[in-house]
Amino acid sequence: MTRVYYKEAVGAFVVFDVTRAQTFDAVTKWKTDLDTKVTLADGSSIPTVLLANKCDQPKEGVVNNPARMDDYCRERGFSGWFETSAKENINIDEASRFLVNRILNNEKQGMMLTESLDADKFSVDGKAKPAEKSGCAC
């Protein structure tokens, strides 16, 4: 069922609750699910940002060690992570901007690849290059 929700996704947030360490256990499951069900046109994973929500509350687990969180995200293919609070509006804009920038960078790279492929079809003056002849005489 999740494949329907992921259809045509170009980025994602995975959110866990810093006050309940057991919610962190599901993070890897969600990231794996995303990576197996949706990819970019080049076959790479969509940018995914991990959100450690409720940072305005007392924290449990690995989120208390930013260096370990950085390692965790790097090892599992997250684009980055942010401590957030939806209630207090902490780092919500920053995390969103970060993800949107990753998405736009992917789009830009995809456009540059398409343009380089299209460059083979057009000359510098903008006129179409003649099609190369194939072995077929039709």
TrEMBL record:
Instruction: Decide whether keyword Transferase is in the record.
Output: no
Top-level taxon of origin: Eukaryota
| Keywords for the protein's UniProt record, in alphabetical order | GTP-binding, Nucleotide-binding
Q: Where is the signal peptide?
A: none
Q: Name one GO cellular component term.
A: phagocytic vesicle
Record-linked SUPFAM superfamilies: P-loop containing nucleoside triphosphate hydrolases
Q: Which GO terms describe its molecular function?
A: GTP binding; GTPase activity
Task: Offer one example of a GO biological process linked to this entry.
Answer: phagosome-lysosome fusion
In the record, the note on similarity to other proteins reads: Belongs to the small GTPase superfamily. Rab family.
Protein's recorded name: Ras-related protein Rab-32
Where does this protein come from, organism-wise? Chionoecetes opilio
